């Protein structure tokens, strides 16, 4: 490998035997160093399954995975066999996977994200424990949920316990979740911690026997319970490497404890520390400004001095700070400067050809969202494409207003003509006769009564059927002007897909409600709650990067970099931000129990946030302010941080127009978007490329069904049987009922349906047991993770249900088996493609070729083996690469021949 490392990078990547603390300044190449350290561990002979690496986000995990896989390919001393067994991802994802794998009772548990958790608590707020604290349903729900997270994730002051009423609510809340087979994100960690502290548990044994090296990225953002988990793993004689920067601790309000990184060498033994102080991202000028800002922190800071090692050369007026009379002038300056720097010659990497800066190279960073609209409006008026990342503007879009009207019409809140108008205004290509057919379909629900069966009204079914009858497609909006650097039709369908997700979130909790009550509650949810939670759908897509200026908060920008950065609004009380008013968790828990100050933050925390904002910039940095006139004059004075900028000679006031700079054709930076797909998603693509786009990218959901859970209940039961068999504890036939009861979960069914499905599942499991008991001692793997790197940023992962050995004519053969609750012969080619991909994964895992693939059909209780051929695997590998490449490039022209497929309507 021909990789140039500086002294500190090389040292950090080669320390393998000591516990290691890597202090990584902004832009110092920490991902490369972590990757090389993993490579060096593999070269040393450490097995991939003995290495675990925690990242802060899934995006960071994807980047690290790709880097490791690419480095491993070019390292002769490393075989890529078994790399899939190395974990790289978030701590929550790892804890959940290992909890389910080793504490089998949690297999049937589902995770509630923030919005579904709020719906769940609101549905039975007394049972959840809210009323016990004097909290009001809907109004105080977010405070209650935050309080429940706080008291379970935070270490209390020594000798102090929770107040009795808070402890009672905690117990009620967790019991309510467990009764319904749910976990929230905090419970993933608390249940994991319970298991690894139990020395007789399978999870404890796994941690102590299998995990030898733990790497924790963004260590400065670790909270108390996460640190406890890390420490428990360390106690198993595991080598610990933490990577972070105390200067970039910006999530104190989530519980991040800066003491963890400050005191690491005291809390852990045999620690070596390396500081990566060379910034390869930012120019000398930007590094100077950032350093002068952060060095004002005199306490609770590790000693370090960041040095610029970037190829970006400073030119006068690269850094500007300007003071304006009013906000209108400030916005006009930013708009004009964006126009002027677009096309300025820029060099992404030393040795590359230069290019002209374009809109996607520019970001406007905000301390809070409440000023976003004024800058967005300025860009819009100047016809500059822009993206406001993460802002909840979904319900301001006309297509969402029209979608909401579907359900308002169903409930009798609006008249037919209002529904018609809301849809006809979207596009002149919407046909009135199709619209009337769609409305006629809604009219078929006019007989809903109080005692109507709950399955009669499935909201997702209503929405999907309405759109199908309307026959709208991307082409319906193709004549309209594109927005945000994207086609208007795609934006509309991303947003409609997001509305489908809203319905799914609601019905996950309220599916079995009485139809009238469900409809009323859904409309109330849309009106009072949903608008504050959901961003526009197209903002969440990761495949196409619009050529547009980005407006985002500084918190959102962590880990990102831009050639041009604007930081506007540098006024007192805005940045540093004043503490928010109103009711909060501290009204319900005494600050003496928990370090309240750590959660609320102080000036140093705000200074760290400003430092993060500055260090996103590669070359250009514009910091501006103007007095915001209010009745109480809270925001009319300049920020303390703005004053601190005067300490650097590199940043000054200027009204330059950059016409003297060399300009060339604007061109966005060419980036390889990493893509991680699982086998199920690929199966969907092979079935129909457009359906993949509709369901996976746009995000449309299939309607829920009372029968959901049948296949998974059988699958989870078999997993327990297979796992125990691999541990020489083959269950007896009399245990089948007990095993099935442990894994049964039919969340949307009534009792009679549950009993019918339970009986059917029992018959399937008994039949499987009787037919396959003789082979239980031949199981090689069950629920085996597979990960395939196809290069060019493409990774495919998944889980193989079962791999077993069996004798055929005196020779041992390997069978890869996938379980289906109902086998569709019309899809057998696609199903076998999935198994062929599994076979490639098995070969990458073991360096051996499987002999047969097999689909076991529970409906019939039988399996048909199919022989594996090398040429078939070569062909499927080409198909996978082609499919992933098309997905990355947003190419979905191909459609299927199924007359009922969604592609027939588009």
Automatic annotation (TrEMBL):
Coiled coil: none annotated. InterPro entries: DExx_box_DNA_helicase_dom_sf, DNA_helicase_UvrD-like_C, DNA_helicase_UvrD/REP, P-loop_NTPase, PDDEXK_AddAB-type, UvrD-like_ATP-bd. Residues 3-283 form the UvrD-like helicase ATP-binding domain. Residues 284-559 form the UvrD-like helicase C-terminal domain. Its EC number is 5.6.2.4. It catalyses: Couples ATP hydrolysis with the unwinding of duplex DNA by translocating in the 3'-5' direction; ATP + H2O = ADP + phosphate + H(+). One of its GO terms (biological process) is recombinational repair. Keywords: ATP-binding, Helicase, Hydrolase, Isomerase, Nucleotide-binding. It is an enzyme of class 5 (isomerase). Signal peptide: none annotated. GO terms for molecular function: 3'-5' DNA helicase activity; ATP binding; ATP hydrolysis activity; DNA binding. PROSITE patterns: UVRD_HELICASE_ATP_BIND, UVRD_HELICASE_CTER. GO terms for cellular component: cytosol; DNA helicase complex. CDD domains: DEXQc_UvrD, SF1_C_UvrD. It holds the Pfam family UvrD_C. Belongs to the helicase family. UvrD subfamily. This is DNA 3'-5' helicase. It comes from bioreactor metagenome.
């Amino acid at each position: 490998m021909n990789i140039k490392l500086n002294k500190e990078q090389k040292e950090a990547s080669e320390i393998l035997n000591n516990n290691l603390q890597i202090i990584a300044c902004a832009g110092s190449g920490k991902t490369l160093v972590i990757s090389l350290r993993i490579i060096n561990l593999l070269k040393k002979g450490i097995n991939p399954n003995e290495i675990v690496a925690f990242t802060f986000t899934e995006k960071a995990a994807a980047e690290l995975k790709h880097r490791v896989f690419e480095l491993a390919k070019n390292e002769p001393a490393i075989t890529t066999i078994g790399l899939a067994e190395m974990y790289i991802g978030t701590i929550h994802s790892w804890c959940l996977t290992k909890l389910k794998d080793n504490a089998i009772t949690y297999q049937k548990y589902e995770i509630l994200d923030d919005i579904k958790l709020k719906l769940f608590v609101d549905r039975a707020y007394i049972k959840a424990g809210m009323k016990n604290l004097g909290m009001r349903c809907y109004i105080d729900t977010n405070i209650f949920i935050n309080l429940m997270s706080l008291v379970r994730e935070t270490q209390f002051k020594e000798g102090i316990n929770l107040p009795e009423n808070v402890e009672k609510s905690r117990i009620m809340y967790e019991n309510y979740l467990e009764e319904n087979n749910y976990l929230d994100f905090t419970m993933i960690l608390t249940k994991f911690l319970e298991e690894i502290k139990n020395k007789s548990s399978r999870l404890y044994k796994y941690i102590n026997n299998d995990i030898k090296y733990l790497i924790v990225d963004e260590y400065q953002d670790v909270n108390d319970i996460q640190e406890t988990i890390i420490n428990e793993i360390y106690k198993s004689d595991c080598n610990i490497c933490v990577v972070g920067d105390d200067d970039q601790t910006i999530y104190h309000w989530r519980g991040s404890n800066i003491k963890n990184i400050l005191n690491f060498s005291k809390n852990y033994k045999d620690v070596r520390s390396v500081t990566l102080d060379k910034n390869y991202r930012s120019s000398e000028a930007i590094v100077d400004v950032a350093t002068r800002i952060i060095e004002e922190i005199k306490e609770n800071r590790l000693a370090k001095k960041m040095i610029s090692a970037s190829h970006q050369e400073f030119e006068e007026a690269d850094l500007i700070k300007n003071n304006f009379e009013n906000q209108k002038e400030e916005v006009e300056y930013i708009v004009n400067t964006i126009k002027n720097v677009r096309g300025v010659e820029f060099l992404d990497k030393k040795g590359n050809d230069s290019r002209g800066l374009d809109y996607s190279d520019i970001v406007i960073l905000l301390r809070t969202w409440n000023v976003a609209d004024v800058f967005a409006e300025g860009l819009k008026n100047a016809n500059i494409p822009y993206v406001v990342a993460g802002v909840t503007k979904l319900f301001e879009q006309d297509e969402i207003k029209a979608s909401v009207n579907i359900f308002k019409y169903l409930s009798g809140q609006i008249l037919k003509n209002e529904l018609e108008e809301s849809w006809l205004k979207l596009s002149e290509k919407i046909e009135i006769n199709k619209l009337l057919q769609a409305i006629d379909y809604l009219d078929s629900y006019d007989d809903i009564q109080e005692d109507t069966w709950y399955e009669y009204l499935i909201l997702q079914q209503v929405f999907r059927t309405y759109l199908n009858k309307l026959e709208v497609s991307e082409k319906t909006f193709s004549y309209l002007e594109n927005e945000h650097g994207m086609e208007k039709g795609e934006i509309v369908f991303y947003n409609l897909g997001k509305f489908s997700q809203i319905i799914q979130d609601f019905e996950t909790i309220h599916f079995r409600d009485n139809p009238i009550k469900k409809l009323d509650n859904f409309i109330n949810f849309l009106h009072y709650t949903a608008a504050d939670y959901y961003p526009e759908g197209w903002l969440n897509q990761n495949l196409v990067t619009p050529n547009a200026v980005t407006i985002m908060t500084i918190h959102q920008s962590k880990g990102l970099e831009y050639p041009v950065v604007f930081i506007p609004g540098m006024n007192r009380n805005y940045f540093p931000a004043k503490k928010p008013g109103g009711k909060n968790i501290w009204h319900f828990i005494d600050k003496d129990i928990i370090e309240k100050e750590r959660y609320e933050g102080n000036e140093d925390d705000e200074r760290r946030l400003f430092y993060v904002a500055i260090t996103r910039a590669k070359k250009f940095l514009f910091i501006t302010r103007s007095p915001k006139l209010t009745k109480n004059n809270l925001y009319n004075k300049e920020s303390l941080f703005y004053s601190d900028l005067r300490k650097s000679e590199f940043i000054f006031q200027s009204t330059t127009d950059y016409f003297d700079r060399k300009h060339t054709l604007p061109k966005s930076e060419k980036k390889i978007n990493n893509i991680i797909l699982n086998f199920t998603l690929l199966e969907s693509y092979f079935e129909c490329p457009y359906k993949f786009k509709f369901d996976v990218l746009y995000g449309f959901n299939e309607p829920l069904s009372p029968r959901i859970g049948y296949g998974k209940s059988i699958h989870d039961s078999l997993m327990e049987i297979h796992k125990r068999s691999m541990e020489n504890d083959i269950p007896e036939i009399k245990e089948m009922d007990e095993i099935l009861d442990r894994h049964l979960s039919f969340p949307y069914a009534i009792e009679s349906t549950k009993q019918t499905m339970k009986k059917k599942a029992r018959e399937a499991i008994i039949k499987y047991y009787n037919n396959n008991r003789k082979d239980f001692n031949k199981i090689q793997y069950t629920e085996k993770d597979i990960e395939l790197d196809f290069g060019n940023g493409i990774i495919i992962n998944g889980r193989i249900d079962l791999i077993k050995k069996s004798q055929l004519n005196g020779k041992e053969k390997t069978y890869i088996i996938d379980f289906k609750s109902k086998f569709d012969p019309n899809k057998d080619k696609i199903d076998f493609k999935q198994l062929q991909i599994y076979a490639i994964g098995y070969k990458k895992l073991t360096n051996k070729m499987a002999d047969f693939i097999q689909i076991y059909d529970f409906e019939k209780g039988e399996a048909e083996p199919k022989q594996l051929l090398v040429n078939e695997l070569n062909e499927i590998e080409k198909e996978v690469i082609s499919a992933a490449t098309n997905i990355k490039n947003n190419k979905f022209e191909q459609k299927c021949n199924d007359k009922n497929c969604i592609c027939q309507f588009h």
